[in-house]
Design goal:
Length: 162
């Protein structure tokens, strides 16, 4: 299988590229610039430089591929998590995802589309990084839930991933 992979040089993309290549698949990995292209090559993939926001260019870059895996993210460092710092990641999820699906459909040959998703399941600071206090409470209680894994919002997040 020939796989078109966004985020090929990232935390998920690099081991995915290596695993796919080890399993006998071909990976065409999106790389931004020569240094990132070298990373894709070192992992056994074929680098391609393309904008994730240009469906026509994406369609051309996907030619000959059987599957698309969208692993591109722009998650800010833990100490800098704010809504504004997540704006580019949200743009990748919203706009680039739409462009990738349109491009994949436009090729007429893509049979598989995988969208990466992430949810933080570790305890977050009281502001959850977004500048507002988290007031998740047990039904009928006015005190915050504890431990974090039993918070109603945590169970909703886990359910959304199933």
């Amino acid at each position: 299988m020939r796989v078109f992979l966004t985020g090929a040089t990232g935390t998920l993309g690099r081991p995915t590229t290596r695993a796919l290549v080890a399993a006998g698949h071909q990976v065409r990995g999106v790389a931004r610039g020569p240094a990132k292209a070298d990373v894709v090559r070192a992992d056994g993939g074929e680098p391609v430089e393309v904008s994730l926001f240009d469906p026509r260019a994406l369609s051309t870059a996907m030619q000959g591929c059987d599957a698309v895996m969208h692993f591109a993210t722009k998650i800010p460092p833990v100490g800098r998590i704010t809504r504004r710092n997540f704006a580019e990641n949200e743009r990748l999820r919203r706009d680039a995802s739409r462009c990738l699906v349109d491009a994949a459909l436009g090729t007429g040959a893509i049979g598989v589309y995988v969208q990466e998703s992430i949810a933080f399941s570790t305890p977050m600071p009281a502001t959850h990084g977004f500048g507002k206090m988290h007031r998740c409470t047990r039904a009928g209680s006015t005190t915050p839930c504890s431990p974090p894994s039993t918070r109603p919002c945590a169970s909703r997040r886990r359910a959304a991933e199933v």
